[in-house]
Amino acid sequence: MKIIVLNGSPKGEVSVTLQYARYLEKVNPQHTFTYENIALQIKHLENDLTAFNRVIDRVRQSDIVLWAFPLYVLSVHGNYKRFIELITERGVQDAFAGKYTATLSTSIHFYDHTAHNYMHAVCDDLNMKYVDFFSADMNDLHKEEYRRQLTLFGQRLFSAVKNNITVQKLYPPLQKRDFTYKPGNPASALQTNGRKIVILHDSKDPESNLARMVNRVKERFGGNATVVNINELNIKGDCLGCLICGSSNRCFYEGKDDYIDFYRNTVMTADILVYAAALLTASFPPAGRRSLTEFSSIHIHRYCRKSRLSY
Ligand SMILES: Cc1cc2nc3c(=O)[nH]c(=O)nc-3n(C[C@H](O)[C@H](O)[C@H](O)COP(=O)(O)O)c2cc1C
User: Fold this and answer.
1) Are 278 and 204 spatial neighbours (Cβ–Cβ below 8 Å)?
2) Domain map (residue ranges) of the chain
3) Which residue of 6, 23, 89, 298 has the fewest C-beta atoms within 10 A of its own C-beta?
4) What angle do CA 229, 231, 237 make, to 5 degrees?
5) What is the SS3 assignment for 275?
6) CATH assignment of 2-162?
7) For residues 100 and 110, what is the distance between their CA atoms, to the nearest angstrom?
């Protein structure tokens, strides 16, 4: 069987997750594995249609698609989400439809279930045949018991495909609705009592429902809210997984773009944060350069301790 591994780590060949997929290859020499470092090469895939189509052709030629990804900020990496968006934007869902698939993650088991649920929903949306998932701790490959479990996961997957098993969708498909948001009668403004309110959104169209809702929320705060469209920030790239932040609390991009200054001066100083984004490809919020989720990650890791509010 031919299996294509779509690697969701920005670290490419040195990705921990990739080693788990390579282990599956090692214990299944009878099958052919090919690898695509999706998250690492997302800009290339966005800008070069030939490169994107080459990946999609490889998917077409495969019997199984293995979505292999690390947890980055409670979910899959933003670049992986972007690739999923591109599948729909470029209308190549047919390459995935009807293919057997499974998900494999490495993480420290912090919200790995949400990432697998999200990817399962994506597979359902793409009309794939979702068989199974394997959620490893980043160090599990060192342990014999977990290597055994990973091997069994591979066996179950190959056996499912060989026996052409029937699978069941878990998530209902996203339905696009024609809906135009019209704000109701203006209510009296809320007392903000000097609190700093920041609304972060990524609307691209000032006439969109999202933009109108953002305006409505701003009005509700009596206009005392700072509205920031993150598309207008100069954000050069996504998290590289370099972990400089882990040792020195500094980011590789510091001084190179707007992100860290914006985070420190606008996000960290807010008393109330409102995130506003449209739901695309089963995911809120959608992909973006170090997208809205990464703000929320920082809250979860340290900011919530100060009892700030975030909606
Ligand atoms: C920026 C960043 C965010 C992370 N967020 C999470 C997380 O939310 N949950 C989790 O369980 N692990 C998280 N991790 C741990 C990684 O998922 C784990 O180290 C993984 O094995 C990395 O795989 P990779 O080398 O293939 O990128 C994070 C790591 C980094 C660098």
Assistant:
1) no
2) 2-162, 197-310
3) 89
4) 135
5) strand
6) 3.40.50.360
7) 27
Taking residues 193-216, report their average pLDDT. 93
Say how many Å lie between the CA of residue 308 and the centre of ligand 1. Answer: 24
Looking at per-residue confidence, does 223 or 114 come out higher?
114
pLDDT at 310 over 50: no
3-class state of residue 135 by DSSP:
strand
Q: Tens of pLDDT along 21-48?
A: 999 999 999 999 999 999 999 999 999 9
**What's the confidence (pLDDT) of residue 287?**
52
Residue 246 pLDDT > 70, yes or no? yes
Ligand 1 contact, 108 CB (< 6 A): yes
Tokens 């670290």: give the residue.
11
**Is residue 59 lining ligand 1, measured as CB closer than 6 Å?**
no
CA of 145 to the centre of ligand 1 (A): 22
Residue type, 220: R
**Is the minimum distance from the CB of 7 to ligand 1 under 6 angstroms?**
no
User: 3-state class of 216 per DSSP?
Assistant: helix
Distances (CA, A) of 36 to 33, 52, 91, 107, 244: 10, 11, 20, 20, 26
Band (81; pLDDT cuts 50, 70, 90): very high
Q: Which pLDDT score is estimated for 151? A: 98
Cβ proximity of 36 and 8 under 8 Å:
no
* Residue with more model confidence, 195 or 305: 195
Cα dihedral across residues 184, 186, 311, 245: positive or negative: positive
261-267 — which CB contacts under 8 Å span 24+ positions?
A: 262/228, 262/233, 263/295, 263/298, 266/198, 266/226, 266/228, 267/198, 267/200, 267/295, 267/298
Rounded to an integer, the average pLDDT of 138-145 is 98
Q: What is the DSSP string of 218-278?
A: HHHTTT-EEEEEGGGS----------HHHHHS--TTTTTSSHHHHIIIIITT-SEEEEE--
Beta-strand relationship, 64-70 and 2-7: parallel
Question: Whole-angstrom Cα distance, residue 77 to residue 8?
Answer: 7
